[in-house]
Amino acid sequence: MQQHPDTDAGNPLENDRAIASGETLFREGEVGDALYIVVEGQIDIYVSGQRLETLGPGDILGEMALIDDQPRMATAVARTDCLLTQVSKTHFLTLVQRNPRFALQVMRIMSNRLRRAIPHLSRPASS
């Protein structure tokens, strides 16, 4: 489990969002305008239909689309009923500008995720 970046709780640019088990939060290829922090529950992350990892409380997802302005690279599906905190792109960029520790924490999370993903990428796909 990863510790989520501090995001000034109570900011009006953040809001909680509940999603039901099996519901898709976002799909690979969609435009991303927010990142999410898992408060409760578990979210499965799929790339090209293959489950890459399962995220839980304290984890963030959706940050890459905010950083590089590219479409989402993965699909996120609720494994269980979930409560998420949604952070808008505007608020995310403000946090990065005002708080270098926040930016560093997001980079660490992305680095750890990439390190975990590399072994999955080298495996042949199942038939």
Describe this structure in words.
By secondary structure, this protein is an alpha+beta fold. The chain has a single domain, classed as Sandwich (Jelly Rolls). Helix content is 31%, strand content 31%. The chain has three helices and eight strands. The protein has helices at residues 63-68, 89-98, 100-122; strands spanning 14-19, 24-26, 34-40, 43-47, 50-55, 60-61, 75-78, 82-88. The strands form two sheets. It has a four-stranded antiparallel β-sheet. The longest helix has 23 residues, at 100-122. It starts with 13 loop residues before the first strand and ends in a 5-residue tail after the last helix. The model is unreliable at 8-13 (pLDDT under 50).
Q: Structural class of the secondary structure composition?
A: alpha+beta
Relative helix content: 25-40%
Order of helices and strands: EEEEEEHEEHH
Q: Just give the CATH class.
A: Mainly Beta
Q: Would you identify the regions where 5 or more consecutive residues have pLDDT less than 50?
A: 8-13
- Rounded Rg: 14 Å
> End-to-end distance, in Å?
31 Å
Q: Counting H and I runs of at least 4 residues, what is the number of helices?
A: 3
Shape label: globular
Mean pLDDT: 86
CATH domain topology: Jelly Rolls
| Number of discrete domains | 1
* CATH superfamily placement: Jelly Rolls
What is the total tally of β strands?
8
Beta strand %: 25-35%
Largest sheet: 4 strands, antiparallel
What is the CATH-assigned architecture? Sandwich
